[in-house]
Amino acid sequence: MSVMDRLSALGLALPPDWTPRGRFLPYRRDGAVVYLSGQINEWGGQVTLTGPVQDSPEAVAAAREAAQVCALNLLFRLWEAAGGDLDRVDCVLRLGGFVNCVPGFPHSPKVIDGATDLFIALFGEAGWHARTAVGVTGLPGNAAVEVDAVVRLKP
Fold first, then answer.
1. Residues sharing a CB contact under 8 Å with residue 39, sequence separation 6 or more, in sequence order
2. What residues contact residue 107 under an 8 Å CB cut-off, 6+ apart?
3. CA separation for the pair 109, 67 (Å, rounded)
4. What mean pLDDT do residues 66-73 have?
5. Nearest partner of 37 among 52, 29, 45, 27, judged by Cα
6. Which 8-state DSSP code applies to residue 50?
7. What is d(CA 95, CA 128) in angstroms, rounded to the nearest whole number?
């Protein structure tokens, strides 16, 4: 089953294209390695969840979903970098996750698991990665979550 078929089987799809909020490239390739710029939980130009994320089970669950939106945005840019073929992904090397949260918020890793879980579901063993998950006091558009990634492609 292809990565796009697995994505569809999960009831998910890649987002529509969008304009970055700043002056940067959405990705940069260095040989087989793709450095993906941070993506917020934005869909169709609208932030899906704003911060700061509160310390409650409901807020953590909503932020996990926001992290999944970030992952879908990363996948769109990765799809572009891979010439429209996500089956070229050899492995996800690293994710960096940022949660716009209240001071003392202890659940940043649980939130960023929303992105991690999607990469593992789509790429299996190759989706496992090194990661950071930190709390911050603000993100672009007051988004709740931002995630960046480094991925290696097959030749």
1. 70, 73, 74, 77, 146, 147, 148
2. 55, 60, 63, 99, 101
3. 11
4. 98
5. 27
6. B
7. 10
* pLDDT (mean) for 134-143: 97
| Domains, in order of start, for the chain | 32-153 (3.30.1330.40)
Cis peptide bond N-terminal to 52, omega within 30 = yes
For residue 145, what are the β-bridge partners? 99
d(CA 83, CA 113): 27
SS3 71: helix
Q: What tokens does 30 get?
A: 């260095």
User: How does pLDDT run across 120-136, given as a tens digit for each residue?
Assistant: 999 999 999 999 999 99
pTM of the model: 0.96
Average pLDDT over residues 63-91: 98
Measured between alpha carbons, how far is 2 from 116 in angstroms, rounded to an integer?
Answer: 19
State how far the Cα of 28 lies from the Cα of 13, in Å rounded to an integer.
23
Token pair, residue 6, equals 């697995």
> Over the stretch 94-112, which tens digit does the pLDDT of each residue have?
999 999 999 999 999 999 9
